[in-house]
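User: Okay, second chain of the day. Same drill as before: sequence in, structure tokens out.
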Amino acid sequence: MKIILTAIGSKYIHTALGLRRILAYAKAHGIETELIEDTVQTPLLAVLAEITGKEPDVVGLSVHIWNKNYVYSLIRLLRKVMPQLKIIAGGPEVSFEPERIFNECPQIDYIVMGEGEEVFVSLINALQQNSEPPAHVAFKKDGRVISSGGTAVVADMDVLEFAYPDLTDVIAGKKIVYYESTRGCPFNCSYCLSGISRNVRKRSLAKVYADLDRMIAAGVALVKFVDRTFNCKKSHAMAIWQFICDHDNGVTNFHFEIAADILDEEEIALLKTMRPGLVQLEIGVQTANHDTIHSINRKMDLARVAQVTEKIRQFHNIHQHLDLIAGLPLEDYESFGHSFDVVYQMKPSQLQLGFLKVLKGSPMQAQASQYGILSQAEPPYEVLKTPWLSYDDIIRLKGLEEMVETYYNSGQFSNTVKVLCKQFDRPF
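Assistant: Same drill. Structure tokens below.
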């Protein structure tokens, strides 16, 4: 049985961690697969020809917010030119509401719901044995959608193989290496999918160290940890940070998404010792409106965030990337302006102004209906208006986003921006 996994990224520099994990796990269990990596900029017919040229029996595709429409179009073409092909879809965009997914794209044969490594291998074994699909797989039978077990979770992260046996090729292509030492999130912010299970699973430090050794030895330029709250367990975060300090090759840098308000003085002291550029920190502030924070089920000590980010800023060795989200419940234009001012005064290296996305399967999906928040029906499901922000307000904030990117985040106008800010009552 010839099996092809197909990853469609948003940019060439991105690598498909999820499908690479599946490929490595399948190989360890005696199932040979090939990986095709392309981008949404690649002509559709070129990807189609690449897949069909390998004459597969099974094609697996990962569906994300950035590639859903592209992948659906590719699936429809695959069904036309290879009617006997078994098409498996997985990923966050198809892990919920299988009836809706089959209605959107009836050419799909099987949907892997949730984390896919173990389920994909079980499904391939079932196809080879011509037996019923396993739990966590949705499929159609006699005109009905059959699914059981809900979304899959890999309970033991240590069963997963290293996802980048092709590090030399990745480095040659100047691509980003994505890595996870944990899955899940202890928090349950309503706009996010990561905390739905509230089940944080950690890869053992011995396994993490072995993986990091390979990446550091290869001279990878940037490793981005995709752990949703990397420092949710202090001992785990400290051990990894100490390891990368002790094994610093002067070349490899690491990106972490953290909750700044739970960093303690010992962790901050360790961060102070790091080589400039060794670590980048992404900190999701999202809003300074306390009612909004409560409404989205988020827990955050804003005063502590300001205190910690200022301490780290004084070290002059760590890039801090702070996030805001416009369009959250209970936040109007003036309130968002205040949130912007609060985060701006933290003087981040970069300030990312994003917009609420009402993701399928997230608690925000129900909240949006409850509050009357209107968003795009198609990806990226971005907010259009709320009871607190008009459509015109959203458009004005889009302009602000562009200005922040052009004049602040680019770093090319740092002196000019400082002078201009003195001409106004507030940064916003």
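The first strand starts at residue 3 and ends at 9.

User: Thanks, on to the next one.
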